[in-house]
Amino acid sequence: MTNDGLMGPPWQIDYVEAARTYRDSLPAEVRDRFREALIDILTAKDPYRPGEQVRVQPIRSTLFRGPHVLFFDGSRGWARFVFVRRTADPQIVVEELFWQ
Fold it and tell me: What is the pTM assigned to this prediction?
């Protein structure tokens, strides 16, 4: 448990159905790169600030606790996610995923 009363990392992760379907349709090597980027936010104390290896930024600078974008594969792909801060079971929810 962290100082703010939340369970600590690794965080749970869930997907909106469309994001899960899109993830499953990606080539295996792209899914691996996405998984590597996810590991950094899943194990970070604050998923919105995972460290220097993974680029994460808020969608709107005025809503820092709102949706964020995780960039992966040299910014060829991104995932929009939110961190739901529930005391009992905090989790990351991937709402949208894109790769080109």
Answer: 0.82
CB 70 within 8 A of CB 59: no
| Exposed / middle / buried, residue 22 (Cβ in 10 Å: 0-12, 13-18, 19+) | middle
- Give the model's pLDDT for residue 60: 82
Q: Mind listing the pLDDT tens digit for each residue in 57-99? A: 998 877 677 899 999 999 999 999 998 877 677 789 999 999 9
Which run of H or of E encompasses 5?
A: none
Paired residues of 4 in beta bridges: none
Smallest CA-to-CA distance from 68 within 45, 53, 50, 87 is with 50
Q: In what order do the strands lie in the sheet with 77-84?
A: 12-15, 91-99, 77-84, 68-72, 55-58
Nearest to 64 by CA among 77, 86, 83: 83
